[in-house]
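We emphasize that the prediction below concerns an isolated chain of 271 residues; any contacts that depend on oligomerization or on bound cofactors are therefore not represented. The input was used exactly as deposited, without trimming of termini.
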Amino acid sequence: MDPLSITASVVGITTAALQSAHFLVKIIDNIKDAPGTIKDISADLRAIESVLQDLHAKVQNDSSQIIRSNQIGPAIENCDRACKAFQFQVERWTKYSKEDKLFWISRWKIGLFGQDRIKTFKGQLKDCKSTLNVALTTATLLAVVSQKELAKEQKGNILKANEADLERELTRVGKEIVEIEQSLQQLTVSGSTEPDEESEQSKQELLQELERQQAASTALRNMCEEALSRTVYERTGQKIKGIKATNDGVALVGFINTSGEELHINQDISD
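Result of the prediction step, given as a token string:
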């Protein structure tokens, strides 16, 4: 797909996601006596709105390849879908409520079925926001270090700091993916002592949302890896990706024990 088509596509899905997030904020804010766990979601939605607005502006004025990463579109689409799905969930919870008064049965349902659903939705929003932030931050830093007047040492320090941030995020999201896998396994094998149609439906919906959160976390991990690869390449001239050692083996790639002159040579070692 050509750059103009990519830009138009990202702008379109970003606009849709912004509308979904904004509409859900209004719905939640109108439930005046909603539990704190639901009210808190408004803050998460406003945070994702801010990042989406930044992306909407950036993608139209920035030719950076990382802004047009393959991870961006799916992350935004997942955010849009997650907001619409949670809107439907909130409407079900408030089905028997009157105006701004949350019926007691709705409160009971939220307590019985809703906590894990809310946690999963917040996780989806967080992963989407992080994916977009990684792309936006890395694009900005790469633009900064491309300035000729910036000293080499300054460029190196900026890039190293971004590498450290990305490695920390990769560690965090790696743990998150493991936790989601464990939750999926536990939910799959768990059974209710008094199964009924509504609880089974809630369980299946939670499983589906956990799988989607798993996909969102994987997209974030891929975005971090891509941003890290680009940052390292900008600093060292080396693109090293997809190299694995099997069993107890050790893989040594790139320049080893060099004096530094070799760093002026671009090197691509990737699968």
